[in-house]
Write a structure and sequence with these properties.
This protein is mainly α. It is built from eight helices and no strands. It comes from Streptomyces avermitilis (strain ATCC 31267 / DSM 46492 / JCM 5070 / NBRC 14893 / NCIMB 12804 / NRRL 8165 / MA-4680).
Length: 137
């Protein structure tokens, strides 16, 4: 049940994004670039400048569709361990980037914790396509 709830959370993160603004105007990545530029840790600024800044349009698609894929994968339980690890990494990236925003810290730390619980609880064994197909036994 926790896995499905986490999937719904990711799906809502995808649903409420203004895709036109993200893809056509680059608002999501521009906002993240502003946050990264002011970050107190140089590794965050440097990492953002090296990985995200040179390809903002591509990264906008990666972020938006990663959230959709995570949500759908967790809801139906398809490739669940991969979705849990991917979600954990994405939450940790968000958490580090937004380390000064208490609201973001709460959301991302809770989602990361649920991912860890889902991994150790092997949440793909019930109510999942992984279980139906005999994956990750």
């Amino acid at each position: 049940m926790l896995r499905i709830g986490l999937g719904l959370w990711w799906l809502e993160s995808w649903r409420h994004k203004d895709k036109k603004a993200w893809f056509e105007r680059g608002t999501g990545i521009a906002w993240a670039a502003d946050v990264a530029a002011k970050h107190r840790w140089s590794v965050v600024r440097g990492g953002f400048d090296a990985v995200v800044a040179p390809r903002p349009r591509t990264m906008a698609y990666v972020v938006v569709y990663a959230e959709l894929a995570l949500g759908l994968g967790l809801i139906v339980g398809l490739l669940t361990p991969l979705a849990l690890v991917g979600g954990l990494l994405l939450n940790l990236f968000y958490l580090v980037l937004m380390i000064h925003d208490w609201a973001e810290q709460g959301q991302n730390s809770m989602m990361a914790l649920i991912s860890v619980v889902g991994l150790f609880g092997m949440s793909w064994q019930t109510w999942s396509l992984d279980s139906a197909f005999g994956l990750f036994q």
